[in-house]
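User: Fold this one for me? It's Enoyl-CoA hydratase/carnithine racemase.
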Amino acid sequence: MTSYEHLELRREGRVGWLIFDRPDQLNAMNNAMRDELADAWLELDRDPSVRVIVNTGNGRAFQTGADMTEIAGDGVGMERYRDDMMDFTLHFTSWHQNVAKPVIAAINGTAAGGGLHFVADADICIAASNATFLDPHVSVGQVTAIEAIGLAKKIPFEAVMRMALVGRHERMSAQRAYELGLVSEVVDPPERLREAAQELAEKVARNSPVAMAATKKALWGALEMGLTDACRVGAQHLVGVWGHPDQNEGPLAFVEKREPKWEPLT
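Assistant: Here's what I get for Enoyl-CoA hydratase/carnithine racemase.
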């Protein structure tokens, strides 16, 4: 796997790990990390040996968004992001990169501001018991928008609005995130988070890659539509896999009481 300055990529069996690696800066995203993320997601998504991607952070933070030191210190500020925002080409997250493989966010500590992109865009989120969530945008004179809009598809609107308006003056706990449905599992003690993420990823990796890719398209796409239209498009994704070798292999393996031998995702 490629070596990156601000990310750590590794593979454990069929699980690829994408790890934010600026622990001294609470994994804040500078320009260099942002560019690396655009390549790293695609590297793991295109690796035939990887079936599931786990996203986490080194140190005591998961991801804390844009590096305020960089933004405040070079005279460019938020203008550096104008073209990407206007064209809506945010290539640093899995959703905007259209990553076909399942993505699990293992939230190991603080998830703040732009770091909430990776929470909103993951297919499954689990959190260490000491993880916290906050959106400090308005506290530093910025508008809360894309991350919060993504979160509003996962949890009740009032909880998102509260986080957006209270800013850095309040943190949501992992337990509260679980109660709201933002995460599906709280891992305690926190030191077990990566072990729990690997175990979950291995369960997911046992399934048909092509069926999971089509499932992601159907379910994420449904969020953009009304119920009837979403079901019509979902039916197209369902039928689109018919005739694929996995369609025969799955029932045969079930009847023969063995692990299926899935075709790689292409």
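One thing worth pointing out: The radius of gyration is 19 Å.
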